[in-house]
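Problem: given the chain below (380 residues), write out its structure.
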Amino acid sequence: MRVLVINAGSASVKLGVFENSEPIFDKNMDGADIEDLLAEIPGILKENSHEDIDAVGHRIAHGGESFRDSCIIDDVVIRAIEACAPLAPLHNPPNLAGILMARKHWPGVPQIAVFDTAFHQTMPDHAVIYAVPKEWREQGVRHYGFHGTSHQYIMRRVAEELRTPLESLRIISCHLGGGASVCAIDKGRSVATSMGMSALGGPVMGTRSGDIDPGLCAFLHRTMGLTPEGIEHHLYHDSGLKALAGTGDMREIEAKAVNGDKDAILALNVFAHSIRHYIGAYAAVMNGADVLAFTGGIGENSAVIRERVCTGLEFMGLRFDENKNAALKLESYESPQIQKENSQVKVIVTKTREQWMIAQDVEHVLGKTLFARNKERLRI
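Solution.
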């Protein structure tokens, strides 16, 4: 089976083509107009002899409360994704545009939606409910969480690396990149995660604020005359590391910090503190932790951030090895450990594989559908 994976974001489109679960082609495209980028996909695939597609998998940022699993896309699913757009205004519309493009160019080919929020549907009520008026909650105001595909992959990769059943593991997964989130995974289930109703909550991010006092919005409206739309724009695009250090690129921030730039040093400290805050909280949620995992562009590549996050976590039984950390350089999808031998907590660094996970989900959904249809024919 040849599966095309489309991950349409707010400013980029990532493509992947998989043949029987093996990657055979990938491409990242950046640009201001997502629909223009999406329109290029059929031509790009044709140029590279990958135009014959058996199924298309789409990363969908927000599935609300409607979707606990990936599913085949039909008109009902499209309307449900549209209904979630107010919860993810920067992400769901591009996701939908990708679906419509694929429907047009590959009519009759199955389209599968894989939701960022689905993995976190296992969180208990006390971890998802906001203490706000009931009529707000009835409109969908609650904790959802994102990066679910990445956290799910990291969960599986950690269990594979340690050769340990998921039922025996308490994992704190740190997806640190332009967007950042931390997830508590207890016995194979997400029980808490840092992003909330939107992709703004949690640790500090590249251009996003992370957690703030909700009263900030009313304060800025009263004192500076900012509109809700204006505040939202600034929190998504002009905050986070960019607001602290003038750039959202961690590589540039680290280079500035080495040269003594005070703003860059502050940004590193604020970012690391915001991650440690969640690690401590989630160790409490799970009554300890067996594994601390790092992934995402920063988690995979920044020895500085890993050291700042891990140093001082001895109270959890974590003994960090600075030498292993400094020497680490990922070549592929290996999962090296960077703790000392006497550490009670494993510290694992690995690359995430969101595109591959989406392709896996596509094959799983179509396999289940085929099995159900054959079973029904046999029953008749």
